[in-house]
Amino acid sequence: MTIIPAFLSLLSLFGPVVSHEHYGTTLLPRSDDTTPGASFSYVGMTGPLNWYSLDRQANALCATGRNQSPTNLASDTNLSSSCSIVLDIPNAPEGALLENLGVAVDVFTNGTLTQRNVTSELVQFHFHTPSEHSVNGMHYPMEVHFVFQASDASVSVVGFFIDFGELDTLLEPIVAGLPDIPSHGNTTTTGPLDFSSILDHFCSNSIYQYSGSLTTPPCSEGVSWIISSEPIRIDVPSYDAFRQLLGFNARYIQNAIGEINLLENIARQLQGSD
Amino acid sequence: MTIIPAFLSLLSLFGPVVSHEHYGTTLLPRSDDTTPGASFSYVGMTGPLNWYSLDRQANALCATGRNQSPTNLASDTNLSSSCSIVLDIPNAPEGALLENLGVAVDVFTNGTLTQRNVTSELVQFHFHTPSEHSVNGMHYPMEVHFVFQASDASVSVVGFFIDFGELDTLLEPIVAGLPDIPSHGNTTTTGPLDFSSILDHFCSNSIYQYSGSLTTPPCSEGVSWIISSEPIRIDVPSYDAFRQLLGFNARYIQNAIGEINLLENIARQLQGSD
């Protein structure tokens, strides 16, 4: 896992990193294990409707940000060519670290994303069931997010929807590793990872692009989203393996970019009625 | 469709009914087409986080009710036998009315639910993608709700999760009718409906029971929920047909029964930070 030092150094821009789980999906790590709100979930008082309260200062944008993700994508707008973006993720013949973070399953390997002459490093990729983004109001069974960070700390996420069909080559060794990580904190090493098919898929399909946020606390904005318009594929048994392990781990669809945060809105509405 | 007069008379307890869509999933009809908030959706300013604002008086419980549905069900609690509940839905050899209500697909046929010597009449049944309820944090691809109303207007809903597998006998003619109702307001008549397998399924599996609410505006409480612990089955192509037609139409998981409404909570939290 020679890539770990590389991304640790990137992430150390934000403070000391004490374990994988502090940057698994939140990306921007919390400084230590005792930070209030370091743990979140997808339901109830620790779920997306209350992430703000878990740490009012750090997570303020979760309830007040107006450029929040995920969003509903419209199939007839925002589509652009993927040609100007270079996604380079070397195959990992030795496999990669696979970790159960409780709120997600993350894979740690190296790679780069280059757009407009800026190169970002792959931090990890992880999975959501169901998809976080929707297209014309329709969700997919899953979504995978490749999280990249540039040297100025700016974040880009390349997302692929995952729909039913023949199991994608890349996903196969990851699915095979899931039984080894039944609990939060478990890690294993996957079989060899072959990124050629997903990179081909990215190149040969148009993309949605917008500026949004992390979909987990602290919901930081300025995240460059790049989402392939066509899903990759998973078979039902493999989907079941992810679903049983992850449960539901998708933030609800946010208001349209630029519009009032839905939580700030309901707070105003309820205040108005007092 | 001889059952329509029967349930119209039930529903007329709540005011004049002008078209199916006023009671499709909301059950409790609005009085006329011009009522503010008569239309809702599952995203953005007309979505679940803002149903309250669509009609502050009628929909108050959507943001303040503390017995709201759907909830997360825990597999090790609340399970009880289905033996004391008699679900009787006669086969419909002539088929049944199938309607695209925009926010759901409803089937209108007759039937009864009897528990504790109270008999309720089936109003309709309808479908959600993905499931509204979750079990231990896991959602199913779909959920079907059979909505019953007693003469005192109290509402009971019998729900079945729908997971992947061989297409259920009951679902087959409904799926076959979906291409005939591509748009909101479209209706068709299904092929013959056979309820025997789903009734057997209900009888032979334990159930979750709790008192919750309608999962659509006006989010009325006091709804008796009865949910089969074991899913019925759908194949992937049929799921796709529902998903393409319905899009995402599941309300988010509410706070635990008796706990503060998540929307009232965030409003208080944001007020507290002013």
Automatic annotation (TrEMBL), chains A, B:
PROSITE patterns the record matches: ALPHA_CA_1 (PS00162), ALPHA_CA_2 (PS51144)
Keywords in alphabetical order: Lyase, Metal-binding, Signal, Zinc
Cofactor: Zn(2+)
Superkingdom of source: Eukaryota
Enzyme Commission identifier(s): 4.2.1.1
Signal peptide: 1-19
Reaction(s) catalysed by this chain's protein: hydrogencarbonate + H(+) = CO2 + H2O
One GO molecular-function entry: zinc ion binding
UniProt KW Metal-binding keyword: yes
Family annotation (SMART domains): Carb_anhydrase (SM01057)
InterPro entries (alphabetical): Alpha_CA_prokaryot-like, CA_dom, CA_dom_sf, Carbonic_anhydrase_a-class, Carbonic_anhydrase_a-class_CS
Gene3D superfamilies per record: Alpha carbonic anhydrase
Every Alpha-carbonic anhydrase domain range: 38-274
Top EC category: lyase
Family: Belongs to the alpha-carbonic anhydrase family.
Record-linked PANTHER family: CARBONIC ANHYDRASE
Function per UniProt: Reversible hydration of carbon dioxide.
Name of the protein in its database record: Carbonic anhydrase
